[in-house]
Amino acid sequence: MSERVIDRPSTQDGAAIWRIARDSGKLDLNSSYAYLLWCHDFADTSAVARVGDDVVGFVIGYRRPTAPDTVVVWQIAVAAGQRGRGTAAALLDALVCRPGVRHVETTITPDNDASNALFRSLAGRWDAQMSVAGEFAAEHFPDDHETEVLYRIGPFRRAA
Distance (Å, rounded) from C-alpha 160 to C-alpha 157? Predict the structure, then answer.
């Protein structure tokens, strides 16, 4: 069995990322073109997990324009056969290790226990604060979308 490697995404990874997002059953699926662009334009704030030649997980994010030390995690998912192996945690840790990253923000629906646990564990591993920074209420969405709670984690401290 091949070892898991965390890497920056390339445009060749866009289709695999789209499929993992589609198959997750939890994520809002963007167009396949959006994932391709994300790999092209936001590779520095995104990561993929590979086992051999296969993409088995991803995290996509961007730097908040008004706070460039903050990476906003847009989506994170791991292929069903790779869940429970620490892949999602490794993807987030890779983002935190990128130059200039001091905070991570994300939104999570209140009923998404897996994501809530994942981001709480990120704060714990890095001994960072985690706070609720607001929400996007369900009534703000034009479709049938749950409330998204905004979390802020950090600052992250590097080991000496």
Answer: 9
> 122 pairs with which residues across the strands?
none
Q: Where are the domains of the chain?
A: 4-153
Domain 4-153 CATH class label: alpha beta
Beta bridge partners of 78: 57
pLDDT in tens, the chain (160 residues): 579 999 999 999 999 999 999 999 888 889 999 999 999 999 999 999 999 999 999 999 999 999 999 999 999 999 998 888 999 999 999 999 999 999 999 999 888 899 999 999 999 999 999 998 888 877 888 887 888 899 999 999 865 3
Show Cβ contacts of residue 79 under 8 Å, excluding neighbours closer than 6 positions: 20, 23, 55, 56, 57
Structure-token pair, residue 116: 């809530």
pTM of the model: 0.91
